[in-house]
Amino acid sequence: MSNYEHTIITRQDTSASQIKQIKEKYSDIIEKNSGNIVQTQDWGLMNLSYLIKKNKKGNYIHFKIKCEGSLIKELEKNEKLDKNLLRFLTVKVKKFDLKTNYFSKEEKTSEK
């Protein structure tokens, strides 16, 4: 099992209930495919560096996952079809930094 950090950017007009549904949807995919979510962080609405699909801002959701590489392919396949998402990024890391939450204005980190 490898360690991955996975970030999703949703559209700026996504409601709080839709963001919750998106987090639950991708958490379910991870858990059904024998992955383990170490931590989930909601970074909130932030400015984008450039326009993406006519959006100036995006809601960021960050997952820290322990899983096999095949799960990442499955996760990204589902994300390509999701109309609420602007971008996603997966980075393989050697170990997780669970203490620092770089983008949180208030501590909104939930650990599992």
In words, what does this structure look like?
With 112 residues, the protein is α+β, with helices and mostly antiparallel strands. It has a single domain (2-7, 14-87), classed as Alpha-Beta Plaits, CATH 3.30.70. The protein contains 2 helices and 5 strands, in the order βαββαββ. It has helices spanning 16-32, 69-81, and strands at 2-11, 36-52, 55-67, 85-93, 110-111. Strands 4-1-3-2-5 form a 5-stranded antiparallel β-sheet, with helices on one face. The protein is globular, with a radius of gyration of 13 Å. 17% of the residues are buried.
Query: Total number of helical segments?
Result: 2
Give the tally of β-strands.
5
Task: Label the structural class.
Answer: alpha+beta
List SSEs in N-to-C order: EHEEHEE
Q: What characteristic shape results from the CA principal axes?
A: globular
Distance between the termini: 18 Å
Q: For the largest beta sheet, what order do the strands appear in spatially?
A: 4-1-3-2-5
CATH class: Alpha Beta
Strand content: over 45%
Uncertain segments? none
CATH topology call: Alpha-Beta Plaits
What is the name of the CATH architecture?
Answer: 2-Layer Sandwich
**CATH level 4 superfamily:** Ribosomal protein S6/Translation elongation factor EF1B
Instruction: State mean pLDDT (0 to 100 scale).
Output: 87
Largest sheet: 5 strands, antiparallel
Helix content: 25-40%
Indicate the multimeric state: single chain
